[in-house]
Amino acid sequence: MNKMERQFSKGPGEGTCAADSGLIVVSDRESPVAELLMRSAPGAVVYPDLTEALAHRQDRKVLLPVAAPCVAVASALQGSALPGEAIEQWMAKTRDTLALLVEAGEQVVVIESSGLLRGEGRNWTVLSAEFGLSCPPAGGVEMPATAGQMAQFLASAILARHPKARRLAAELNARLKPSVDLPEPDFRILDSEWAARTGQKSDLTATADGGQPQITTPQASEQTAEIGLLRDSLGQTMNVIRELEEEVERLKGETADHYIQVAMTDVVRTQLNTLWRESKMREAVLGMALLEDARSARAQAAEQKALREALQAEIERLNPSGTTTATSDGLTDETPQQDPE
Q1: Is 75 left (phi over 0), alpha (psi -120 to 50) or beta?
Q2: What would the mean pLDDT of 230-241 be, rounded to a whole number?
Q3: Dihedrals φ, ψ of 42, to 5°?
Q4: Are the CB atoms for 40 and 69 separated by under 8 Å?
């Protein structure tokens, strides 16, 4: 946490809440959100997890402050988590929370925590409508450190390009009061980060040798198009990197052997499918060859039969009294021999 504190000024009626609100809050008791709500509602009971809070709520509603998806992922990235690890942890936690919220129905009010800490009016309007709280605390609350620009950019880019995470974020945002839109990646952050790290300008305001801005409209248009293509390419590259990081994370630890076996099984299955296709192709080629041989043999036999019949007819014409016969082995003379007297 940093040292910046949000001061809440006193207006008419502010700073005087009911002595015992009966408010049930799900939060780390040492968190700024818990501190803020306990100042707003003396007597509030704070539980560390939603399951325990639901078990003790009786007929009261439960207040669940949560960080917006992009804020939560950016905070994890700021804490040195890998992108794949950060998004997987957030997805697992969000799935569990959504499952409990489905079971609890309307008995849990989910409020966006950052706006609550900043004292935004619409967040406090929700608390007023749901719990009768109409005043922020008079004292200051230490604000948690916010993630840097690059962490925020990476978080928004990952959520924008991860279908499952985006669906979970949409489900969570649908339950948040007030609702929070999922921000699109702001690629201008890359420009400023590049300039900060290299000391060079990455936009179209690079100066000439004389120190005056170079402005050439056709070149500027071409450079703008190139920058757009580079940004699109960067987005695709980040998507591939994210997928590879997730795959590496899944292959770590106790589940590594399982995924290796699955991969090996897929390889073997692919090889078997290839061999099966090759076998079918060989069978088809062999069958065609056998059919061709059979057709050739039948044609040859028919040709030989026709030749024998033609030869036999010619023999009978030339030697009507003889018994010469045409066979496949040649001509056979079957004329009876007379004994000499």
Answers
A1: alpha
A2: 64
A3: -55, 135
A4: no
